[in-house]
């Protein structure tokens, strides 16, 4: 079995986006259970190779680095296109992504990747009960109000992973020492698309939200604070 995990560089060099760490941990648990091979892929500048090295330290086997020239905002469609072009050559049984990126928090790349590859997709997955012999991955996905949606997904498939009961492991010393010997396939944008992929959306501007109301501080003893809070709630007709 072959599993591919899409990871993204976080806010610091060498840091994997938090949501992608949960996706990687989910894959590594399956690796231990089924002796699967876990590859990781990232699309980003040259410095993004550090997240692949960290993934090696956690237990990933091989890495793919799509070196991009883009800086700042990058369309989710563009990223998904790069990932799909590289992933379709790998014959992967499962592809994991985090439920969303740590910076943009759009939750679009995973479903777009599935659409481009023509694969079934489930989002917000909190548990999976992979049964390779049947070619299925039964999953539970998080819904509103604490409900869960239970589905049987036919392999191969793309799953976006929500933070569940598994905590991402720390890189081990032995894995970090062995990381330098593991293979990283480096691809340029031109290797995948001779003509640059056109984004589906364009960033116009970024603005900080304006402060529209002031907070209310409660002072004095606990009894004084309780009285102030009660008076405030009564004034707003909340009690």
Q: How is this structure best summarized?
A:
It contains seven helices and nine strands; from the N terminus they run βαβαβαβαββββαβαα. It is of the alpha/beta class and 239 residues long.
Overview of the molecule:
It contains 7 helices and 9 strands. It has helices at residues 18-34, 49-58, 76-87, 109-117, 173-178, 189-192, 222-235, and strands at residues 2-6, 37-44, 62-67, 94-98, 121-128, 136-142, 148-154, 157-161, 184-188. The radius of gyration is 22 Å and the shape is globular. The model has no long low-confidence stretch (mean pLDDT 92).
Strand content: 15-25%
Whole-number radius of gyration?
A: 22 Å
> What strand line-up does the widest sheet have?
7-6-5-8-4-1-2-3-9
Largest sheet: 9 strands, mixed
CATH topology, anyone? Answer: Rossmann fold
Low-pLDDT parts are none
CATH level-two architecture: 3-Layer(aba) Sandwich
Offer a few descriptive terms.
239 residues; 30% helix; alpha/beta; nine-stranded mixed β-sheet
Topology:
Elements: E1 2-6, H1 18-34, E2 37-44, H2 49-58, E3 62-67, H3 76-87, E4 94-98, H4 109-117, E5 121-128, E6 136-142, E7 148-154, E8 157-161, H5 173-178, E9 184-188, H6 189-192, H7 222-235
Parallel strand pairs: 1-2, 1-4, 2-3, 3-9, 4-8, 5-8
Antiparallel strand pairs: 5-6, 6-7
Helix pairs in contact: 3-4
């Amino acid at each position: 079995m072959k599993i591919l995990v899409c990871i993204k560089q976080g806010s610091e060099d060498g840091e994997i986006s938090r949501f992608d760490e949960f996706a990687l941990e989910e894959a590594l648990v399956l690796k231990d259970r089924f002796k699967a091979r876990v590859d990781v892929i990232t699309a980003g500048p040259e410095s993004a190779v550090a997240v692949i090295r960290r993934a090696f330290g956690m237990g990933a086997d091989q890495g793919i680095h799509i070196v991009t020239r883009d800086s700042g905002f990058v369309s989710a469609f563009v990223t998904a296109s790069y990932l799909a072009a590289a992933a379709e050559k790998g014959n992967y049984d499962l592809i994991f992504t985090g439920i969303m990126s740590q910076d943009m928090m759009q939750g679009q790349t995973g479903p777009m990747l599935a659409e481009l590859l023509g694969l079934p997709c489930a989002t917000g997955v909190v548990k999976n009960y992979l049964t390779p012999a049947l070619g299925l991955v039964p999953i539970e996905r998080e819904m509103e109000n604490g409900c869960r949606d239970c589905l049987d997904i036919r392999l191969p498939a793309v799953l976006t992973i929500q933070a569940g009961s598994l905590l991402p492991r720390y890189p081990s010393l032995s894995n970090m020492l062995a990381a330098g010997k593991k293979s990283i396939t480096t691809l340029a944008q031109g290797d995948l698309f001779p003509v640059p992929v056109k984004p589906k959306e364009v960033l116009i501007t970024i603005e900080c939200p304006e402060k529209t109301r002031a907070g209310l501080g409660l002072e004095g003893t606990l009894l004084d604070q309780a009285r102030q809070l009660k008076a405030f709630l009564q004034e707003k007709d909340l009690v």
